[in-house]
Design goal:
six-stranded parallel β-sheet, 9 helices, Rossmann fold, binds NADPH dihydro-nicotinamide-adenine-dinucleotide phosphate, elongated, five-stranded mixed β-sheet, diaminopimelate biosynthesis, alpha/beta, binds the ligand O=C(O)C1=N[C@H](C(=O)O)C[C@H](O)C1, EC 1.17.1.8, 11 strands, single chain, Dihydrodipicolinate Reductase, domain 2, 2 domains
Length: 245
């Protein structure tokens, strides 16, 4: 598979280049960066892997729809409108949209889903994430997805029940609440913890990434998986064949 890599000068773009070259089933069909012609870059390629900037996603997908090319979106921090544009494009082309491509984090999603079902009554949930000081968006896409998974299982709603940090006289913690806490510093690749706490005990599920190659090789795996897929919106759990039941 000939792959177009967007955001090529970035931390992830460089890691994806290495992962595409390392995989015998993929080759670099082209690269793209800010200001370059996306239509021309996409032309010789079979699929796109995007780790760039959320504001670029709509333009990228419009071109992929025109050229009928599958897309892997790893970029995070999208607005509601940009998320709607992703869902709309996925009606015409196959799209994998995942906040995290590592097997470990997708296992964390699975474990958190199971824990949420068992601990649904009486456990308070808090999410903590830490990333390098360059990161632009907060909370991380992974932390957001973690909260969405837990909300689905604990009858909560991301917009209504997730609070981002706390300050001042916040009062007694409501039961239906997920506290979200984002830390930034140094060169941390990406740490995520889901805490389930009740009187007398707590469970902490933690994933720590120490290299971007787990994200990069996962995104190549997703692109190859898309080759024979019909139009639709998929995530990395679909690629890995994890059950959401
Ligand atoms: N899903 C996952 O598994 C992971 C997702 N990510 C996400 O990937 C994204 C990129 O992360 P990272 O590589 O660290 O970021 P970087 O800032 O290192 O790289 C971003 C890249 O995108 C380019 N870019 C910036 N703005 C635009 C634009 N408007 N149009 C086209 N290209 C643009 C940059 O170009 P220039 O250098 O010229 O500004 C650069 O090449 C983030 O959203 C991050 O959260 C990161 C890791 C894993
Ligand atoms: O920006 C990053 O670096 C990362 N972003 C992703 C996110 O927002 O969840 C995934 C990973 O944690 C690294």
């Amino acid at each position: 598979m000939n792959i177009l890599i967007t955001g090529i000068t970035g931390r992830m773009g460089r890691a994806v280049l290495e992962a595409v070259e390392a995989n015998p089933a993929s080759t670099v069909g082209g690269t793209h960066n800010v200001g370059e012609d996306i239509a021309a870059a996409m032309q010789p390629c079979d699929a796109v892997i995007d780790f760039s900037f959320h504001g670029f996603t709509t333009e990228l997908l419009a071109e992929a729809v025109r050229q009928n090319k599958p897309v892997v979106i790893g970029t995070t921090g999208h607005t509601d409108e940009e998320r709607a544009a992703i869902a709309e494009a996925a009606k015409s082309i196959p799209v994998v949209f995942a906040a995290n491509f590592s097997v470990g984090v997708n296992t964390l999603f699975w474990l958190s889903r199971q824990a949420s079902r068992i601990l649904k009554d009486g456990y308070d949930v808090e999410i903590i994430e830490m990333h390098h000081h360059h990161k632009l968006d907060a909370p991380s896409g992974t932390a957001r997805r973690l909260a969405e998974v837990i909300c689905e299982e604990m009858d909560m709603d991301y917009k209504q029940n997730v609070v981002h940090g706390r300050e001042g006289l916040v009062g007694v913690r409501p039961k239906k609440e997920i506290g979200m806490h984002s830390m930034r510093g140094g060169d941390v690749v990406g740490d995520h913890t889901a805490i389930f706490a009740t009187d007398g005990e707590r469970i902490e599920l933690t994933h720590k990434a120490s290299s971007r190659m787990s994200f990069a090789s996962g995104s190549v795996r997703a692109a190859l998986w898309l080759a024979d897929k019909p139009a639709g919106l998929y995530d990395m759990e679909d690629v890995l064949g994890f059950s959401k039941d």
